[in-house]
Amino acid sequence: MDNNKPFIHIDLPALDIDFLYHEFDAQEDGLMLKTTTDVGKYINSMITVSAQPPAPPITDHSVIIYLPVNCWNHHILNGNFITVISWKKKMIEQYLMSEFKIRVKEFFLIGYEKGFTQDKIIKAFLSFYAVKNNQVNYDSIKKIDYRNRQKITDEVKRGIQLELNW
Q1: Max CA-CA distance within the chain?
Q2: In whole angstroms, what separates CA 106 from the centre of its chain?
Q3: Taking Cα atoms as reference points, which of 4, 145, 159 lies closest to residue 74?
Q4: Which positions of the chain have pLDDT values less than 50?
Q5: C-alpha distances in Å from residue 60, one per residue of 11, 12, 116
Q6: What is the pLDDT of residue 1?
Q7: For position 72, what pLDDT does the model report?
Q8: Residue 90 to residue 88: CA distance in whole angstroms
């Protein structure tokens, strides 16, 4: 770990960590946050400065995220402890999952439009996002696709019912 770079050590679900590794540049022991993306801006907005050192992560799924240093934040980042408090961590998790689901939806829409099967789209998605290809992640992606297709079916059903005045 480079002690000269400010960082946060945060515990997140494994799927979120895989997603972050796709979004940001990997360092020797973590990730370099980029504030040029919406995900990076959001995570950067959730950091908190503290006079006390943060508690170490509790779970096995944690990641070190190095923060960008700018002319406006270098004094505060270098002179204090940096952390993400629990309710902000939960907000980050929810944001990452919603962003992930949007990416899955877009990937499937294009994949189905091109005539690919669900299995091929899932495998391509797992490969593209470098998500560990295991049964849990495979089924998670499949479930997201199923729910998206169910929403489309429900919208079609409502549209037809409105036209029929039933």
Answers
A1: 67
A2: 15
A3: 4
A4: 1
A5: 8, 9, 36
A6: 47
A7: 65
A8: 5
Nearest to 127 by CA among 20, 22, 14: 22
Report yes or no: 8 and 65 within 8 Å, Cβ to Cβ. Answer: yes
Paired tokens of 38: 């919406």
Full DSSP string of the chain: --TTS-EEEEE--HHHHHHHHHHSEE-SSSEE--TTSHHHHHHHHT-EEESSPPPPP-SS-EEEEEPP--TTTHHHHHSSEEE--HHHHHHHHHHHHHHHHHHHHHHHHHHHHTT--HHHHHHHHHHHTT---SHHHHHHHHHHHHHHHHHHHHHHHHHHHHHHT-
Q: So what's the pLDDT on residue 153?
A: 93
Alpha carbon 2 to chain centroid, angstroms = 24
Q: What are phi and psi of 27, to 5 degrees?
A: -105, 180
Tokens of 100: 């992930």
How open is the CA angle 27-129-91, to the nearest 5 degrees? 75
